[in-house]
Amino acid sequence: MAAALQTLGGGIGITLHWIAFTPTIEQQATEEQKKKWLKLAQDVAIVGAYAQTEMGHGTFVRGLETTATYDPSTQEFVINSPTLTSTKWWPGGLGKTANHATVMAQLYTRGKCYGPHNFMVQIRSLENHQPCPGVTLGDIGPKMESNGNDNGFARFDHVRIPRENMLMKFARVEADGTYVQPPSSKLAYSNMVYLRGTFVMSAAQALASATTIAVRYSCVRRQSEMKPGEPEPQILEYQTQQYKLFPQLAAAYAFWFASWFMTQQHGSITGSMEKGDMSGLAELHALSAGLKSYTTAVTARGIDVCRMACGGHGYSHASGLPALFGGAAALCTAEGENTVMMLQTARYLVKCFAQSQAGKRLTGTVAYLSAVQPSPVAGNRNMSDLGTLVAAFQHRAARMVRHAAMQMQGEMQKGKAREDAWNSCSVLLIKAAEAHVHSFVVRNFAETVQTVEVDESVRAVLTSLCQLYSLYGITEHAGDFLKDGYLTGRDIDAASSHLSAMLARVRPDAVALVDAFDLHDKILRSVLGRYDGRVYEHLYEWAKKSPLNKSEVHESYYKYLQPFLKSNRAKL
Ligand SMILES: CCCCC/C=C\C/C=C\C/C=C\C/C=C\C/C=C/C(=O)SCCNC(=O)CCNC(=O)[C@H](O)C(C)(C)COP(=O)(O)OP(=O)(O)OC[C@H]1O[C@@H](n2cnc3c(N)ncnc32)[C@H](O)[C@@H]1OP(=O)(O)O
Ligand SMILES: Cc1cc2nc3c(=O)[nH]c(=O)nc-3n(C[C@H](O)[C@H](O)[C@H](O)COP(=O)(O)OP(=O)(O)OC[C@H]3O[C@@H](n4cnc5c(N)ncnc54)[C@H](O)[C@@H]3O)c2cc1C
After folding, report:
1. Is the shortest distance between the CB of 504 and ligand 2 below 6 Å?
2. pLDDT of 372
3. What positions does the entry give for FAD binding (predicted)?
4. pLDDT < 50 positions in the chain
5. Atom of ligand 1 minimally distant from the CA of 191
C-alpha cells in the first residue's frame, strides 16, 4: 500500500489506478470485460481513475447526477453531466494522469432510472493524452496534503460509449434495452467495501509510522532535569511521554491485527458471494464501514499526538509527521465520510438488536449482543485479565446499543416517523457503534495475542500491549463503564494503576516494538525517525537544502524589506 501511495512525481499520481480503478474492474467486470481491460490496467497500459464523487454529492451515492442513458438504436450509453454540481470532483488521477475512468452514473433505459452503476469511459487519447471529444478535465487545485496526486474534475457532454462498457458482472442491460436486476443493488458498491477494508491497514501503517518516528526521537531527544544536577533524561523517561505514545503504539498493533481479520473476512464473504450466497454482505459492509471510520479517526488523532510529543521539530516537515497527519486526515473523509460510515454500522446494529429481541441467535461480530447480561454484576474485577477487559468492552457496547435502540423505539412510540426518530437519536447511535467497533478491536487484539505463533517472550510483550490498549480505553471512557455499575470506581482506579504499570512494562521494549514494523527510512521519510538516530546532523543538512537558503540575502530583501527599512529610518 505504501508503494502504491508513492506518486510518479509531482502533479501526477496513480494511487487510485491501483487501489480503486483496477479493483473495480476485478470486482465488477464480466469475464469478457476483464479480458479486454484487466491486463491493460495491471500492466499500466492504461491508467484509470475511480470517478464517483461529484461537486454536489459524495456521501449520498443515490443522489449522483451524472447520467448514462441507453440508446438502443446505436446500442450505446450516452454519458452526460447535466448540471454544474454533477461535475465529477475529487477522483485521484482524474485531473492530468488518467486516460480511462470507471464512472458511476444513474442508469436510464427505456425511460426508467435504475440507480447508480459503473461505466468504463476513455477520457484521454492514447496517442497524445488530449481529452477525448466531449470530455472536459482538470485538477481541483491544492489540498491539505498529498498535492502530488492530481485529484481532478471531469465533465461529460453527451459522450457515447458502447453498451459493453457498462460493467455488467452483477446488473446488465441487453441490446434491446432490457435491464437485468443484480442479486443485490448494493453490489455496485462492492469496490467501496473493499477499499474501506484496505483503509484499516493504511491506518495501521500510518500510526505505525508516526509511533516509530516519535518513539525513536523520544530516545534521542534529551530535555530538562528529572532530578536536580542529573543529566537531561531521554524524554521517553517521562511518564507523560509514555502516556502519549504507548497507547498509540498499542493501537497501531491493534489495527494491524484488525486489518488481518478484515482481509480474511472480505476474502471469505466475497468468496461465498461468488457462489451466490449473499448472506454475509450486510455484516461485511457494517464491519468495513465501522472499522474504517474508527481506525482512521483514532489514527489521525494519534498522529497529531505523536507530532506534539516531538515538540518544535515535530511541527517541521523534516519530521514527516505533518504529511502523515494530512494523509491520515484524508482517510477520514475519503471512501465514505467517517460519520456516515459509523451510522451505517449503527443501522446494522439496531437491526441485529431487534432480531435478538425477537429471539434470533446472533452470530459473527454481533454475537455478543444477545449473550451479554443486561444486569451488571459489580465487584472487584481482575483488571489485568484480558478476558475481564474484553467482557467489559462488550458489556459497554451492548448496553449502549440497547440504550440507543430503545431510545429510538421510544421516539417512534411517541409518534415520530422512523427517519425522524433515527435522526434525533443519531448521536447516541454513533457512540454505540463506536463502542461496538472498539469492543471488536479489543476482542480481536486479545484473541490474536493469545493465538499468534510467536516466541513466548514476544507473546508476553504483545499481551502487555493489549492490556495497555484496553486499560487506556477503559480509563478514557470510564463513564460508559460506570454508568450501570458494571465497573465500580475501585475497578477504574485499579485500571488506572495497572495502566501505569503497563507503561513502565512496555518502556524497555518500545524501540523493539517500533523496529518490528520494519519501516525503511525511505518509507518513513523522517529525519526524527531515522533508524541510525543521527537526528541533529541530518536536521541541519535538511534545513540547509531549504529553497530559502539558495542565496544568502533573499531577493525579497531588495524588493520589500530594504525600501521598507529605508523609509522607516528616514522618518527617525
Ligand atoms: C501508509 C500510510 C497511509 C496514510 C495516508 C497517506 C496518504 C494518503 C493520502 C491521500 C489519499 C487518501 C485517500 C486515497 C484513497 C482512496 C481514494 C478515495 C476514493 C473515494 O473516496 S471513492 C468514493 C467513496 N464514496 C463513498 O464511499 C460514498 C459513501 N456513501 C455510500 O456508500 C452510500 O451512499 C451509503 C452511505 C452507504 C448509503 O447508501 P444507500 O444506497 O443510500 O443505502 P441506505 O439507504 O443507507 O441503506 C440501504 C441498505 O443498503 C445497505 N448497504 C449500503 N451500502 C452497502 C454496501 N456497500 N454493501 C452492502 N450493503 C450496503 C445498508 O446496510 C442498508 O441495508 P438494510 O438491510 O439496513 O436496508
Ligand atoms: C483525498 C481524497 C481523495 C478522494 N478520492 C476520490 C476518488 O478517487 N474517487 C471518488 O469518487 N471520490 C474521491 N474522494 C471524494 C470522497 O469520497 C468524498 O469526499 C466523501 O465521500 C465525502 O463526500 P462529500 O465530500 O460530498 O462530503 P458530504 O457527503 O457533503 O459530507 C459533508 C458533511 O455532511 C455530513 N453528512 C452527510 N451525509 C450525512 C448523513 N446522512 N448523516 C449525517 N451526516 C451526514 C458528513 O458527515 C460530513 O461531515 C476523495 C476525497 C478526498 C478527500
Report:
1. no
2. 60
3. 53, 92
4. 1-10
5. 57
CA dist 522 and 528 (Å) reads 13
Bridging pattern class, strands 100-109 and 48-51: parallel
Instruction: Please state the separation of Cα 289 from the chain's center in Å.
Output: 9
101, 91 Cβ separation under 8 angstroms: yes
The answer to whether 335 is a known catalytic residue is: yes
pLDDT at res. 131: 98
Cα-to-centroid distance, 269 and ligand 2 (Å): 26
Residue 53 annotated as part of some ligand binding site: yes
Residue 9 labeled ligand binder: no
ipTM tops 0.95: yes
Whole-number Å distance between alpha carbons of 198 and 336: 13
Please name the residue whose Cα sits nearest to atom 33 of ligand 2. 337
Q: For residue 90, which of 152, 7, 5 has the smallest C-alpha distance?
A: 152
The half-sphere exposure of 127 on its side-chain side, counting CA atoms within 13 A, is 1
Helix axes 456-476, 489-506, angle to 10 degrees: 140
| DSSP secondary structure string for all residues of 215-260 | HHHHHH-B-S-SSTTSPPPBGGGSHHHHHHHHHHHHHHHHHHHHHH
Instruction: Provide the grid cell at 547.
Output: 529553497
Cα 337 to averaged position of ligand 2 atoms, centre (Å) = 5
Catalytic residue among 76, 335, 411, 434: 335
Alpha-carbon gap, residue 316 to 538, rounded angstroms: 13
Q: Is the minimum distance from the CB of 334 to ligand 2 under 6 angstroms?
A: yes
* Sign of the four-CA dihedral 217, 222, 224, 230: positive
Rounded to 5, what percent of the chain is helix, strand, coil? 60, 10, 30
What is the sign of the dihedral through the CA atoms of 99, 103, 109 and 111? Answer: negative
317, 546 Cβ separation under 8 angstroms: no
The three grid cell numbers given for residue 209, joined into one nine-digit string = 509510522
Q: Has this prediction a pTM greater than 0.90? A: yes
